Queue: 3 jobs
Job 1
Amino acid sequence: MIGARRVSLALTLVVLALAAMTFRVVRDGEVALAESDRAFNRGDLANAVLYARRAAIAYAPGAPHTRAALARLRAVAVGSEGAGDVASARLAWGAIRAAAFETRFVVDPYASAREEADRALARLLTEPGSPDPEARAQAFAKTRELLARTPGPAPAASALLLAGLVLAGAGLGVVALRGLTREGRILPRGFWLGLGVFAVGVACWTLAAYRA
């Protein structure tokens, strides 16, 4: 009964911590988006892009500010291209690409936006080149190949890293709850079970770090 109460209390604390973190992320995203709106309205595209990128990075599933931030960045990019402002277009498309990488973990929430940004950047980076269509096509393909390379750990490695951390934490929890008495006496079954789970978690974390 005491063990169940401890587990229930631990889960409640975890839920409250996650809720607090989500609230903080959403609040920061909304503040950044409001700053982007003000910068955009006064014609300051550089700061509009900067704050919209910050809002996009403050990712929480389903949060409306993330969609609005991507829409703002895309509007600046497309509008700047149409106006011939290549520098601002590159800045905005690059911000979308950067936000996609910075929010990528086990899932890739901005994958489609990053794909569009990669195509646009490849086009913008190759347009000033040779007037020869074949040479430009080759340059575009090469640029797309370079942009397609994804920095950072793969999603599988990120998932393995997360699993390792969860298992290591669970193992320590088993040791604390089932492997030791209040007097500090070792209960062999719970202690070695928890230690084994902890070792598996450490192994998963190490493998994920190696693959990253």
Note: The chain has a mean pLDDT of 79.
Job 2
Amino acid sequence: MQARPCGACDLCCTWLGVNSLGKPAHVACVHLRREGGCAVYEARPADCRGFVCMWKEEARLPHSLRPDLSRVILTRDEAGRRLRVTCSPANPLAWRRPATFKRLMRLCRANWADGIGVFVIAGLRQWLLTPRGVMALGEVRDDVPVRFALHADGSAQVELLAPVPAGEDAERYVATLRATPGSPGAGQT
């Protein structure tokens, strides 16, 4: 399936951090053209090439969830078990707008039985959407692994694991937690 064009949306050029350019998250990229779009699109860094915007990739998502319209970016984690709804720092409650919230809850219900959770991120605060409503997780840094279980009755269990120590490779650290009996992350899938 061919991806949808970005159209007028270029929010990933501001919201994402790009290590190879030394660009922190939530700062406009130096290659973002005033009229929109990337000035070096064909030669853009691997960080940018690797970014997958769910709205662009999944035609089933409505036009109204395009990031520049909804003020949220939808992505999947590497394992495909978490859908991340990241709010614009300027609009941390964008996910609560009635039309956007309704569509996100529909996305939650459509993925629940497959064990895929919809997590909303606004700054340091995170929530898990459940068929029963919204579960506040509080302040959760990006380097904190999350273990969760979604139940058929619409309830969920969420456990925040130990943060990844500075200098550690996050994937290797989480794999070690999963493999160590009795550790906070043992058995995480």
Note: The mean pLDDT is 86.
Job 3
Amino acid sequence: MHWFDLARDQLVQWKLREKAARGFRKSFTTLAQKALDTAFDEARSRDDRFIGCEHVLLGLLQADDALVTKVFSDLGLTLDVLRSEMGTPPERDPGSLELSRLPFTPRMKHVLQNARLEAEGRGQSPVDEKSLLLALLREKGGLPGRVLGKLHIDVEALRSTVLSEGAAN
């Protein structure tokens, strides 16, 4: 195969991925998209190779949603607290590969599916940041669940608070 054919095939694959990404983004509100974009930035800043639940939780804390911010501040959960519970980022490899897109972990893909179900259950379309948070809280494993447990935060009570305050807004 000639180098030109390889480059053309790569370009076709890239265009297909971009088209899929645009469709994916349309299924989220602007604030939820902002949280996911911030999660990407958080993962890159830690030199992680995937976007996980912990990155999305950090993204939600920075998404400027009044309900999410209020719920977390009432619990004393701040960016600094969450980042310290996550631990320090690993040392960066100077030759590490810079990725323009990071894939989601399998657990985070499951959370995104659950976020869609949460949104549909609340009659919300597209998926909003509250549905994303509710789906994260539903996920028992993973770093956010461990961090919230370590901080003695009752996840079910937190879910109830988000649901009740979300209904009031």
Note: The domain at 24-86+103-168 is CATH 1.10.1780.10 (Double Clp-N motif).
